[in-house]
């Protein structure tokens, strides 16, 4: 193990996905700071580097799923499908890295193992698995919200004679399912994308479903030349629209309410939305996530669709036995998911009624019996939002760890800063809209805000920024209020609540007030001299530190 120390960086950024790359562009190219990006993988891409499972595809439409800060960057890239597939997004992110010569500031194959704040020096010490330490004034995490794989602790996995994979850590060489008996656990967005593709080559696919999930057809198609040209001609409008909609998407939410719409008209609107496909289904009415009565109409429509598509009535009943409001969990979109259960080589197993008890050397045993398998695919999701941040072992002022500060759930100000952790910024942290929006939009907003904040500090000769405890308390209340105004907390097993990880505090983590409102709040706070943050000059910070260490006369 080497032991090297690098000092005098202005900023260390952790992660080289969308967030880390764009933050690097902001800080290095606009502000002229010295920056190092530390990345565990051997290439850029973040989520899209790791999630190479069969069928991996984005659910935002391609013309909304990119960086929009540079019109030439947009014009220089051409998407090929309505929803970009994982390899295409990875090619796009490499195009960004090439275009701005980002790799010279990114150190790959470098896993951050700890980050400690040195108050006297006002520096973060960032340690890596290889024993290197980087020292910087600012520490910016760009580790993604869904990057810590969750492999449930099912007894016996170590004795399984076949191969097993988690979708978020998929082998780069791919997996050959030909002639294999495959078991897939999980029916979230990932499982719903993977099942139809795996079923095409596997001898048999057994899907282990704990919770029935809604899904709407994606209706993916290749983009026509005409549409590609439309994207180029309308880059500015697309950018504007994604900034002017609550979910950061390039389509508007209908102003119409489902509850005010006569049943026949409502049915026709749902039918058209189903045919159009994708996340726009959720935008068919404005009250789907605020009124249970409205939501029930969407849930009922999808339930009927599943029962029409799936021929075996028992399987159809199981697949449509929804126990939560539509879109209260992240709503998947699919290509032939429900149709896949009409194939003779696909079986659905209800592991709510008969839970998985163990993994045996030959397969999976549920309360109902054993399923013989050659391959197990864990489409079991992630320790979302807090997992990647806590994994960095961050220690702030007075040796307080982020893990301790968040033992009852994540608390912070704007999803960006935590009291006790000066000069640490968390891109798309819990408490920000992040996963409830089209991620590149949320990422650009955060990276721009952080860059503006650092610019302001440098202009004023300030070296240290820290959220005040009062501002943090107020913000946490706002996040709770925004979540409770929606139906989202009603999905009791959702990862938005941390409910998928045993022992994790159940707190609704993302800010559900919408991206447009959130952006306005962030802008107003900045315009008000970064209200709710304590900003100090280094000397003052050092004096304050020295003061707190004085022994008291008593
Ligand atoms: O993970 P999930 P995901 N025994 O947590 C089940 C984004 N994404 O990887 O619901 C049995 O949603 C679990 O069951 P239950 C998107 O934001 C985007 O699918 O807890 N089952 C559930 O069915 C998404 O929301 C895209 O009862 C177990 C599944 O595993 C997020 O990533 C594509 C189990 C996990 O679902 C995560 O999606 C893919 C156990 N012990 C992902 N443990 C697009 O852009 C867990 N489960 C299209």
Task: Name its key features.
single chain, disordered C terminus, alpha/beta, binds 3-acetylpyridine adenine dinucleotide, 554 residues, eight-stranded mixed β-sheet, five-stranded parallel β-sheet, 17 helices, 33% helix
How big is the Rg? Answer: 24 Å
Largest sheet: 8 strands, mixed
How much beta, percentage-wise?
15-25%
Given the structure, what is the number of helices? 17
Distance between the termini: 47 Å
Give the strand tally: 20
Shape: globular
How helix-rich are the residues, as a percent range? 25-40%
- Which runs of at least 5 residues are low in confidence (pLDDT < 50)? 545-554
Q: What integer is the average pLDDT?
A: 95
User: Which kinds of small molecule does this entry bind, naming each only once?
Assistant: 3-acetylpyridine adenine dinucleotide
Structural class based on helices, strands and sheet pairing: alpha/beta
């Amino acid at each position: 193990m080497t032991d090297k120390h690098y000092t005098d960086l202005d900023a260390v950024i952790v992660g080289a996905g969308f967030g880390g790359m764009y933050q690097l562009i902001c800080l290095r190219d606009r502000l002229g700071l010295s920056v190092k990006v530390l990345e565990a993988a051997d290439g850029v891409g973040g989520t899209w580097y790791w999630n190479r499972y069969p069928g991996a595809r984005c659910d935002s439409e391609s013309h909304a799923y990119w960086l929009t800060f540079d019109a030439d960057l947009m014009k220089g890239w051409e998407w090929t499908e309505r929803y970009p597939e994982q390899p295409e997004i990875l090619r796009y992110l490499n195009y960004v890295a090439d275009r701005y010569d980002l790799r010279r500031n990114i150190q790959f194959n470098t896993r951050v193992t700890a980050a400690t704040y040195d108050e006297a020096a006002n520096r973060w010490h960032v340690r890596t698995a290889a024993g290197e330490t980087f020292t910087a004034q600012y520490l910016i995490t760009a580790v993604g919200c869904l990057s810590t794989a969750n492999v449930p602790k099912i007894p016996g996995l170590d004795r399984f004679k076949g191969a097993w994979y988690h979708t978020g850590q998929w082998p780069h060489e791919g997996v050959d399912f030909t002639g294999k008996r495959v078991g897939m656990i999980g029916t979230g967005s990932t499982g719903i994308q993977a099942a139809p593709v795996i079923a095409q080559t596997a001898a048999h696919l057994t899907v282990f479903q704990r919770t029935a999930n809604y899904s709407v057809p994606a209706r993916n198609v290749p983009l026509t030349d005409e549409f590609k040209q439309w994207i180029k001609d309308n880059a500015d409008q697309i950018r504007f629209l994604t900034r002017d909609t609550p979910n950061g998407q390039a389509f508007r939410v209908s102003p119409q309410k489902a509850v005010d719409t006569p049943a026949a008209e409502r049915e026709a609107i749902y039918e058209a939305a189903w045919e159009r496909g994708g996340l726009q289904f959720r935008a068919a009415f404005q009250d789907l996530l605020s009124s249970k009565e409205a939501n029930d109409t969407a849930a009922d429509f999808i339930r009927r669709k599943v029962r029409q598509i799936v021929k075996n009535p028992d399987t159809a009943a199981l697949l449509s036995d929804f126990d939560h409001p539509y879109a209260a969990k992240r709503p998947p979109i699919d290509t032939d998911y429900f149709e896949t259960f009409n194939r003779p080589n696909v079986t659905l197993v209800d592991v709510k009624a008969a839970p998985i008890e163990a993994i045996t050397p030959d397969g999976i045993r549920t309360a109902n019996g054993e399923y013989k398998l050659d391959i197990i695919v864990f489409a079991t999701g992630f320790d979302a939002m807090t997992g990647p941040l806590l994994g960095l072992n961050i220690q702030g002022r007075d040796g307080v760890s982020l893990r301790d500060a968040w033992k009852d759930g994540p608390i912070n100000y704007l999803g960006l800063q935590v009291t006790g952790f000066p000069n640490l910024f968390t891109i798309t942290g819990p408490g920000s809209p992040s996963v409830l929006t089209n991620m590149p939009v949320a990422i650009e907003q955060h990276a721009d805000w952080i860059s503006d904040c650092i610019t302001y500090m440098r202009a004023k000769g300030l070296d240290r920024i820290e959220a005040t405890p009062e501002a943090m308390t107020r913000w946490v209340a706002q996040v709770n209020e925004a979540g409770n105004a929606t139906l989202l907390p009603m999905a009791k097993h959702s990862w938005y609540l941390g409910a998928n990880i045993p022992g994790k505090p159940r707190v609704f983590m993302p800010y559900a007030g919408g991206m447009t409102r959130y952006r306005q709040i962030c802008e107003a706070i900045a315009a008000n001299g970064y209200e709710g943050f304590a900003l100090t000059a280094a000397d003052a910070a050092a004096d304050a530190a020295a003061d707190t260490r004085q022994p008291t006369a008593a």
